[in-house]
Design brief:
- This protein is mainly α and 225 residues long.
- It is 41% helix and 9% strand.
- Strand 4 and strand 5 form a beta hairpin.
- The strands form two sheets. It has a three-stranded antiparallel beta sheet with strand order 2-1-3, sandwiched between helices. It has a two-stranded antiparallel ribbon with strand order 4-5.
- The chain folds into two domains: 153 residues, no CATH class; 59 residues, no CATH class.
Length: 225
């Protein structure tokens, strides 16, 4: 299931973004000129993939974040605001752990769903030599390298510069006390988000989100019909 989730995300990324020449030129131009498209496994080196525990939505889901990060999110990452230690579990750690459990005959029925996550992390290292710390630190280093290699942002692309919680014109340095960081984030989200288009009359994303769990996936209705 985990490999299927990653494969689905990677295929969507390759088909909808990597095959777009303008995307490749802007996000991956300059330092990285690709003569051919990467395959799914090669894409992992440019991606932060993993899961949060506990999940931040109604279900466990795979996060698939292709680099480079936007400037705001990379600044948040450097401050420890993304991929939190012992909450974000890298795809590589999850895959290695599941493969080890699949190949082992050890009876894990004694494991209770309410066990502390530290217990499970310690068990994986104790019995299988799979270190969460090793995988997590490798992901953090990869994210920094990914940003250094692919970040395309230049001053002329940015309208404002944020210093602390204050907004300044990126070109003139003029202070805009009426603009808040939150308002800029809200505006940027509407500009760049790809889901929910076309927007409705209130400039809100169209479509919907199914937030009710189903014991049997066949119970879900197909809204495309």
């Amino acid at each position: 299931m985990l490999e299927l989730l990653y494969s689905s995300a990677a295929k969507a990324c390759l088909e909808n973004y990597w095959r777009d020449e303008s995307f490749r030129e802007f996000y991956l131009g300059g330092k990285a000129k690709w003569k051919k498209l990467p395959n799914e496994s090669e894409l992992l080196a440019m991606t932060v993939a993993g899961m949060n525990y506990p999940p931040s939505q109604y279900q466990l889901h795979l996060q698939f974040i292709h680099g480079p990060l936007l400037p705001f999110h990379y600044a948040l990452f450097l401050e420890g605001g993304h991929f939190h230690y012992k909450r974000f579990f890298p795809y590589s750690f999850l895959l290695a752990s599941l493969k080890a459990l699949e190949d082992d005959n050890r009876d894990f029925r004694h494991c209770h769903p309410d066990y502390d996550i530290d217990f499970i992390i310690d068990e994986m290292e104790k019995f299988y030599g799979i270190s969460y710390d090793t995988h997590w630190h490798a992901m953090i280093s990869q994210t920094k390298q990914m940003q250094e290699t692919y970040a395309p942002w230049v001053e002329k692309d940015l309208e404002y510069r944020i210093v602390g919680n204050q907004a300044f014109d990126a070109q003139t340095g003029f202070h805009h006390p009426e603009i808040t960081v939150k308002s800029l984030q809200t505006s940027d989200v509407k500009r760049i988000q790809s889901y929910g288009r076309p927007y409705d009359t209130d400039e809100k994303p169209s479509g919907g989100y199914y937030n009710f769990p189903a014991e049997n996936p066949k119970e879900l209705q197909d809204w495309t019909e």
